[in-house]
Specification:
With 267 residues, the chain is α+β, with helices and mostly antiparallel strands. Helices cover 49% and strands 18% of the residues. Among the domains are: 71 residues; 47 residues, no CATH class.
Length: 267
């Protein structure tokens, strides 16, 4: 049964994969022979197919979780929030005092100054709190990254030897992670496999037949004829340049093999 038929007649099966202990405490992760990844939350048994994104063209399944604050971090943020609350209360109390009609102008001016200073302190406290919180969040955030084609191969494809450590897509389609489209290869096998890729072949053809669009409108046939005529030392570059509507510099580059090097002269 070829790979194409297998894609449509194989039954989708799932294998649990080994994940970091940090994630394993809360989740189970499964991969299918179709290239899907699902997560089961242990506490609720809720199942979710993970959305996949691309990394250099390869599908990846990722999800993040936040680890709890440790005791020291918890106390630090509690103290910081209390300090902010106290500062807000100080400003509020000063505001109430400021509304007292019996205050003199000088007293009001002093209170306004204290409010401004307290507000400045409050802004610094809030700014420092946010900065510390963001830094702590980055440290607490843990992400599980799964390169789907490798995870599928690890669970559904036989790995002949340790040297077979690269997983190749047989049809060169990185999005097709059905187990029948994947194969463990050695580095050399993978190099030979990639040479057959239609994308590699196409790029080689384009490179070989590139028409130098920035400085020439010559066709391949014209170049072959020009190369033949340029072999004659007595040929007039000026006349050739005028006839083919190119510069004499371009003709010299063609003659020296700097341009159109892979195109042979006409027989």
């Amino acid at each position: 049964m070829d790979n194409y038929i297998k894609r449509f007649f194989d039954q989708e099966t799932w294998q649990e994969i080994v994940i970091k202990e940090l994630f394993a405490e809360k989740f189970q992760i499964f991969v299918s022979n179709y290239g899907q990844v699902k997560r089961i939350t242990k506490a609720t048994q809720e199942q979710k197919i993970l959305r996949q994104s691309l990394s250099e063209g390869y599908p990846t399944a990722n999800f993040s979780m936040m680890i709890p604050l440790n005791e020291k971090e918890t106390l630090t943020f509690i103290d910081a929030r209390q300090e902010i609350a106290d500062q807000k209360k100080t400003i509020a109390d000063l505001g109430i005092t400021l509304n007292n009609d019996e205050l003199s102008k000088n007293d009001k001016k002093d209170i306004e100054q204290k409010i401004a200073e307290s507000t400045s302190v409050l802004n610094k406290l809030v700014g420092n709190y946010k900065k510390k919180y963001r830094k702590c969040e980055l440290k607490r955030k843990q992400t599980l990254y799964l390169l789907v084609h490798r995870v599928v191969a690890q669970n559904f494809n036989h790995q002949p030897t340790e040297d077979h450590n690269l997983v190749a897509h047989l049809d060169f389609d990185k999005l097709n992670n059905h187990h029948s489209n994947l194969k463990w290869m050695t580095r050399q096998e993978n190099v030979e496999h990639q040479k057959k890729s239609p994308y590699v072949i196409k790029s080689k053809i384009l490179a070989t037949n590139k028409l130098m669009p920035n400085f020439s409108k010559l066709t391949v046939n014209q170049v072959m004829i020009l190369k033949k005529r340029l072999q004659n030392e007595n040929v007039s570059l000026a006349l050739l340049a005028k006839r083919y509507k190119v510069s004499q510099t371009q003709l010299l580059r063609i003659k020296r093999g700097e341009n159109w090097a892979k195109i042979p002269a006409a027989l």
